[in-house]
Amino acid sequence: MNTADLGLPVAVPSTALFTDQYELTMLQAALRSGTAERRSVFEVFTRRLPEGRRYGVVGGTGRVLDAVENFRFDETILGFLRERGILDEPTLEWLADFRFRGDIWGYPEGEIYFPGSPVMRVEGTFAEAVLLETVILSILNHDSAVAAAASRMAVAAGGRPLMEMGARRTHELAAVAASRAAYVGGFHTTSDLAAGFRYNIPTVGTSAHAFTLLHDTERDAFTAQVDTLGGGTTLLVDTFDVTEAVRTAVEVAGPELGAVRIDSGDLLLIAHRVRQQLDELGATKTRIVVTSDLDEYAIASLAAAPVDAYGVGTQLVTGSGHPTCSMVYKLVARADSEEPGAPLRPVAKKSMGAKTSLGGRKWAARRPDADGVAEAEVIGTGPVPAELADRQLLVPLVSAGKVVAREPLDAARDRHIAARAALPLSATQLSRGEPVLPTEYV
Amino acid sequence: MNTADLGLPVAVPSTALFTDQYELTMLQAALRSGTAERRSVFEVFTRRLPEGRRYGVVGGTGRVLDAVENFRFDETILGFLRERGILDEPTLEWLADFRFRGDIWGYPEGEIYFPGSPVMRVEGTFAEAVLLETVILSILNHDSAVAAAASRMAVAAGGRPLMEMGARRTHELAAVAASRAAYVGGFHTTSDLAAGFRYNIPTVGTSAHAFTLLHDTERDAFTAQVDTLGGGTTLLVDTFDVTEAVRTAVEVAGPELGAVRIDSGDLLLIAHRVRQQLDELGATKTRIVVTSDLDEYAIASLAAAPVDAYGVGTQLVTGSGHPTCSMVYKLVARADSEEPGAPLRPVAKKSMGAKTSLGGRKWAARRPDADGVAEAEVIGTGPVPAELADRQLLVPLVSAGKVVAREPLDAARDRHIAARAALPLSATQLSRGEPVLPTEYV
Which segments constitute the Nicotinate phosphoribosyltransferase N-terminal domain (chains A, B) (predicted)? Predict the structure, then answer.
């Protein structure tokens, strides 16, 4: 098996069908009306953060690059579109040669964002840029939601290790992307072997209640596990009676037992009891891992408990109440003709309601105060003020169709930590509040 | 491209890495302790429905069957597990030959479920059954969450067509599974081309504000669209001024215009105005499609509006507030030895907290009252009472490793409609409430 077989965009022959039908029919109409080649600028942004959240985290940028590179229409795809009568022959012919040759700029992965932040900007002909809407939004909306939840959990954990264990709570391939986004947001390991395989994230595992129940006694189960995995393993101690299980665990593994896992009950209370018991048994270095429906608030509530690591599942992979971001992909400028070099004109929807957008190709910069703490997200369409020139947030990701910003996942993870550390202190309060930086338009 | 290239389980060489690491290390320990071949029964169930929900909908069964069939450990996967030091050689050798040879029973796809319903039962050796935990839960938890949301929306829509348009709001492959689950739950079409390709769901599309903004005038845009897609197309009328756009639309396309789409503002008010305007313009058969952040409540609130179809995105693919189900995979019975024919013994976790389970291999039946309306979900571990014998809910899905229950997606969709229709009337109230049927254990 190679990575293609996991269906992950990097090695999938094509991501072109991760597309809403209207993108292709708009292409067809634009080819016919002589507007398809008008130079166009699309921007990805969100009008608001999830309610109460103080910052957003860009996740998925690296996956977008893979997806754009593999966005091709091969014979099978073209045959499908033809058979279904979705497109006419000239459009199918146009697609047969398609590859994205434009430019993409964006906030690098792990960076913080706020309402209005142009987290990605796609420039090219209308035809080539309109096609990427759905696949880009799918990736950024999903991955950023998980990365944001992970970041809050990492803050709550205060440096204690975080294990991603949510594969069973989300789509099997969304789970792999979620592990990746969680790592960017500050998690340390994953239980998901596909994520370990694909993204080289360190994998971990303990055992399930089923393993204890399979054996005639809890002692038999612990013995079996220690025999094969060694005393450094993590024994699950809440299948029957925790106190008895901890005693048995240390008897079986000795005081060098790696860790015990608690998966139910009042974790604060039980962790204290188990710590005391372990210490009394001489297992002073045996760690305590907790894993029961944790979210950032539950993690924070255990800050004073003798807990050594957290395993988080459901709430992580579902974005802790916000499973998607509300990022949109909007045309903000386009040329008046197909002539090369025709000047760009800002455009924006102007109808009623909250969906109005700001036209024009934007830059963005994070302005620090005198102490170097970020004080505003500044977004503009004109020239960049000199004092913000080296504070700009958008970087080149794709130039003339070529990916120019590949990086190891650790780079995104480190960037996130640095970006978060530059925010005002209130950024990391878990309580509900407004975005920690105002967005200023200049 | 073939279906493998979309990374969907049916044609992926292996789904074996969609697995949490502990399943493999438990296997290794069980092989060592001589318990791996103990006959075991695992059941999938949920302890509760999402808060306020009156019924659950089984989604993803068909995808589980594909995943089980493709759960194989090839050289690449074994190499990864070896290099990472996750497993020892005897376990790797055991896995090299692995294929699931046990039995799977389950609620057929589209069926309704309640707290405690054994929606899937996996029987085999511990070794073969424990490995399937994560991939089965991933699929059922995700797909059932979307199917349940879709079902509520379908009830709210009262027969009006529902279009799935949520690909951009979720992981690109989760989106494909979500389209499928939405179809099972009662949606009619999808905008997601990958879902059309993979599952043959009818695809649809309109156009985006970008298309209007690309052109010099709205009239130019409408003309371009009608020229190539014909007068039966759907024109988006809320980029600038709705009244003017509707007038232009009918001028351009004539009174045979297929539909107009409204994507912002007070949909109830605007739909009435647009209907009146269309009728005055003679476009009495032009349909009105609405698409702005709809959920089941918004859909219901438009019941009296002259709306002809709904397009639903975010709230559908995120389960309308409940993006995952809380299904778990628990060992409920196992043999005392590896001897073939050794009797099964019920087992269950017995620790404190809400996670206690009921041991034993279960049957389930939906008991009707004298009028044929369902009145209870009956679950038992002993003999099935004669009067419930033909009301049983579990059907064979996999027998001795062979899939025996493939069916077209429409069969699941029809089954869901029938199962929902057999529930008490209060099942389809959108208001929060208790599960519409009590679960009785006998």
Answer: 17-141
